[in-house]
Design a protein that fits this description.
This protein has 60 residues and is mainly beta. 0% of the residues lie in helices and 82% in strands. The protein starts with a strand and ends with a strand.
């Protein structure tokens, strides 16, 4: 049994008017992936949880 949840990716692009003119701000916001697996071992069943996390990146 494998259950997987993926919580999306948000990409925001903004055109900002600054004193030096216009510049583009791009922002990528996190993806959280949670995977749950029920594994059969010699000692019985065990739950394995895995979290994969990608954080925010901002480029200007």
């Amino acid at each position: 049994m494998v259950k997987e949840h993926t919580h999306g990716l948000v990409e925001t692009s903004m055109l900002v008017n600054g004193m030096m003119g216009k510049y583009m701000v791009k922002e990528h916001t996190l993806i959280l992936m949670e995977t749950s697996m029920l594994e059969n071992t010699k000692m019985g069943k065990k739950m394995v949880k895995e979290h994969t996390l990608f954080m925010t990146e901002r480029s200007m």
